[in-house]
Amino acid sequence: MATVKFIEYEQASPEVRDVYDDIMATRKTDRVNNFWKALAVQPELLRRTWNGVKQVMAPSALDPLIKELVYVAVSVTNGCTYCINTHTAAARLKGMNDAMLSELMAVVGMANQTNTLANGFQIEVDEPFKDGGRGAG
Amino acid sequence: MATVKFIEYEQASPEVRDVYDDIMATRKTDRVNNFWKALAVQPELLRRTWNGVKQVMAPSALDPLIKELVYVAVSVTNGCTYCINTHTAAARLKGMNDAMLSELMAVVGMANQTNTLANGFQIEVDEPFKDGGRGAG
Amino acid sequence: MATVKFIEYEQASPEVRDVYDDIMATRKTDRVNNFWKALAVQPELLRRTWNGVKQVMAPSALDPLIKELVYVAVSVTNGCTYCINTHTAAARLKGMNDAMLSELMAVVGMANQTNTLANGFQIEVDEPFKDGGRGAG
Amino acid sequence: MATVKFIEYEQASPEVRDVYDDIMATRKTDRVNNFWKALAVQPELLRRTWNGVKQVMAPSALDPLIKELVYVAVSVTNGCTYCINTHTAAARLKGMNDAMLSELMAVVGMANQTNTLANGFQIEVDEPFKDGGRGAG
Amino acid sequence: MATVKFIEYEQASPEVRDVYDDIMATRKTDRVNNFWKALAVQPELLRRTWNGVKQVMAPSALDPLIKELVYVAVSVTNGCTYCINTHTAAARLKGMNDAMLSELMAVVGMANQTNTLANGFQIEVDEPFKDGGRGAG
Amino acid sequence: MATVKFIEYEQASPEVRDVYDDIMATRKTDRVNNFWKALAVQPELLRRTWNGVKQVMAPSALDPLIKELVYVAVSVTNGCTYCINTHTAAARLKGMNDAMLSELMAVVGMANQTNTLANGFQIEVDEPFKDGGRGAG
């Protein structure tokens, strides 16, 4: 059980309702996830986090589905159950199918393995990649 | 300095050279990264890891650039310096520009933040997302 | 279900009871948490861990409530469900209210985000901060 | 070397300078850390992150020094070199001395150990703490 | 509930059955764990992962029980509930008793604590250990 | 550079020298690692940590070399550079050769990969393993 009480729409202050309304309008849904109901214990935290997520996940240099796949990849690496489930569901809504999900997991699994090996042997970064290949000079 | 000696091409056994040749041919380059030179201390580990990476990163249900972005996202979340630098460089070669990199970091940063908040408040997964939205039933 | 059997007070050896008694006396309670009952499978592990926790959490250069908030922050970052719940409860007993908890989570969330960004862009430590600002010289 | 080019004040767009000015004014300093110079590659990321940090670290239900100690604790748990150094320095500026730093590390170290033990034995949360002690009912 | 549907033996394709048969023969059991049933959503991921695990866990320079203890140690450090439970059970089958399990947890807990302290104080690697003691020269 | 000043033997208080002497006698060496010199900023932290490490790493139900391999495995998973280097060196002194190191890394890498996959698909623990196979009943 969550360590704070969820704020339901009916009990919410106008400031919180305002954010809830924006969430539902932006996501074209009539439900507000538990995540936001927990954050609403501090309206400023709710508003700042929602505004951040809304901006970051909007279409831009990267496609929204790609962003969602990245979100799942991070959540899996962190082992966050809430986030894995909700973002896997969100990715499905944006077009991810089972084949894509399993490919994604294959990449995430491989990356976690090779990250470990690179750390384990304390491998020095190759000269040409020392600045992530941006060619500083 | 790495905790094992790198195996250079000249000193490598035929078994190791065979993998090095496949790496260079597949990646259309004439260099073998330090990562593989460290793994070569155990030829079987080298071959299995390279075959895995080669399969996983090949085009499939997901585009190679998307896979590379996911690889960077995982490496950043794990804080693996070697992996961040080499895969950021690889992503640039596959078409990632600075705008895409900064968008990617914005998503990865936001995901790490909201993962934390979901854990911190011990939020229960919403009923409709309990199976990652696959609609078990 | 835990991977070891809990040792209840009634079944405990005198050595284990001795630690249990100290836990209950120090914490002014008549219950021993599951954590200690699991560690009791190895009495030395139980005693050493309890003595460490007792010393570390006692009043010192830092206030016990601050220490408890730090404990929660670490547990959240590690995603340890047992620890988040028990230390959030302990922090409440020491005076943490909902406003403080949500502020704490806001800091922990922000720190996890900026940690990610610093790693992600592989940012060099600024010259004046290279020794954590202790002014080596 | 960072994987993006730092944006120095002289080269910065008015939008970026605006944030830099606010950082220097808020922190009463004439330098902008590398962190912000890297984020400036995407002005929106810079502005959103700075506004978040500024809000979160301001005095509120928790004292700014406590927040800084929590920031260090999270950074240490994540092993983020950049963040450990810069936030340790920031904590010193806000009043942390060596005794407080070593106490802080003692708590962070102990928390990481007991987190591990709780995970390792898969210990169930004690009934009274299942909601972080908030007494749901 | 898992985010993909488990593939049971009866519904499995010949390619998947082939792997399931090898798992059961190698492990001398008549059951296939949920882990493999989830991976079977992508037969190539199933086969590659099983072949890797089979090779890596076979007797070699390290004894199978030692490998299983290491597997548990990593799973505990990552906080992976599925992996902790299944590999603790596997270690028991290979000869681990309660005394060994609690010793293992004591080491894993201590390592997580000292890792934290080494990070927290940003301690430089001692000269003689800079290459993991292999005596490069 | 470390965020605290190292305490050298010559400057150390009798309390600290006492621990340093025990470290050198126990390890049959005439050097004290940087790790202990940093912890000495708080003598109680130094003593408690050293006593813990000494007890935990002593021969018991598990062989000292096995414990050292586990220490390396945890340090690699946490990506702690100081710890990877010093414990790899310590393992070599206790008999680990290159073949064992590469086998160890193969296991650690595989464990990190399968941990990820188990998390990623949110796989339920199989009924017989729910208590780590201890057969509660």
Dominant shape of chain A = elongated
Structural class, from helix and strand content of chain A?
A: mainly alpha
The portion of residues assigned to helices of chain A is 55-70%
Give, in order, the helices and strands of chain A.
HHHHHH
- What oligomerization state is this entry in? homohexamer
Number of helices of chain A: 6
**How far apart are the first and last residues' alpha carbons of chain A, in Å?**
54 Å
Low-confidence stretches of chain A: none
Overview of the molecule:
Six copies of one chain form a homohexamer. By secondary structure, chain A is an all-alpha fold. Chain A is built from six helices and no strands. Chain A has helices spanning 14-27, 34-39, 43-57, 64-78, 81-93, 98-120. The first copy, chain A, is elongated and about 55 Å long. In chain A, 59% of the residues are buried. The model of chain A has no long low-confidence stretch (mean pLDDT 96). At the A-B interface, helix 2, helix 3, helix 4, helix 5 and helix 6 of A face helix 2, helix 3, helix 4, helix 5 and helix 6 of B.
Brief overview:
Chain A has 137 residues and is mainly alpha-helical. Chain A has helices at 14-27, 34-39, 43-57, 64-78, 81-93, 98-120.
Characteristics of this structure?
mainly alpha; homohexamer; 6 helices; 137 residues
Q: What order do the helices and strands come in, and which of them pair?
A:
Six copies of one chain form a homohexamer.
Chain A: H1 14-27, H2 34-39, H3 43-57, H4 64-78, H5 81-93, H6 98-120
Helix pairs in contact in A: 1-3, 4-5, 4-6
